[in-house]
Amino acid sequence: MAAIFPNHQVWDLFCRVVDNYGDAGVCWRIARMLAAEHRLPVRLWIDRPQTLNALLPELDAAAEVQHIDGVTICDWSRLVPQPQSAAVVVEAFGCGLPESYVEAMAAMPRPPQWVVLEYLSAEDWVDGHHGLASPHPRLPLQRWFFFPGFGGGNGGLPREQDLLTRRDGFDAAVFWRALGFAPPEPGGVTASVFAYADAPWTRLIEACRSGPEPSLLVLPEGALAAAARSYAGAAQHVKSLRLGALELRWLPFLPQRLYDELLWACDCNFVRGEDSFVRAQWAARPLVWQPYRQEDDAHACKRAAFAARYTAGMTPEVSAAWHGLQHHWNHADGVGLAAAWMGWRGQREALISHAGAWSARLVAEPELVAALVEFALGKVK
Ligand code: TRH
Questions:
Q1: Spacing, Cα 166 to ligand 1 middle (Å)
Q2: Number of domains in the chain
Q3: Which of the residues 52, 88, 258, 305 could staple to 376 if both were Cys, CB 3.0 to 4.6 A apart?
Q4: Active site (annotated) includes residue 162
């Protein structure tokens, strides 16, 4: 493996896919930015390349090693990582490094810097933990903890250097036509829906179907999109279906770089987990977030912490509209969802304006990958 990068400056990024797409999605985004924007030699060790293949169709899920966009992607399930040429090791989401790799790190004359990249949270405690170190219990190594966040004393959020320029130059009509659809009819609301199957999506469909204005719900293929097909009685080949005032559109699961464009093409984005949640904020469009469910309801604390930050400064009416839809989308019975959807539509312009101001505020905060590079290289002796 050292033959790929003979010099001692490689960044080894370790990604263990728990489930869904976010581990792979975040790690690929960071690895690609390290290579493309910071010209660093990066090895992405991923244990399930097939998950990354869904986001990156050019990836060969069967290959042990491959190079895409300047990143060397290694199948961790088949190769044994060696740290010989590593300067920095990023352990994504505390996934754990192979014991043999850690032992080899400790035996190096200049062990690489070991940084644990944590999950994103808006909770206040994050700032006090960001940048702290923890000594290895047995070996002469220490791990540094790096927390993403919403600024103010943490690592910030990943944002490609050209993202906002691409966003602001985006042409939604071109996007829709490239996918084989006409642009949405004017005067309605277009929303993308990327959520876990337990979201009250049938309530949303019924609220839109019987609504006073046209609605378009866009469903990228996945568990929810498949369930919506059978709910709406749409055969597998059907790409679009009208139900009253609602049009349903099914899209393929898009390459990660195109998913941003879907977010930019919509008036509202239902997102989930971590990466789509962040991308929806950069899209400067109103968002409804369904965090990944965790034991002891830790996701509810994350949801409340973000809501408090996001709605600070909103008028009571706009805040109530945002909280209403956010609340009912995160409660499976969805009893109040129809009223919350109407309340949201009543505050649509104010929510769109707020989403733009929120994105602009985040731009002033640290960008995660640049902060990570500065942090890690600042530790390299
Ligand atoms: O897929 P997720 O639910 O992943 C989750 C979360 O990351 C969660 O934090 C983590 O603990 C859990 O995995 C293990 O949601 P997320 O984070 O939004 O990741 C989805 C990725 O898929 C993101 O990079 C966007 C991408 N995507 C596409 O590339 N194309 C698409 O069509 C869609 C809908 C998403």
A1: 21
A2: 2
A3: 88
A4: no
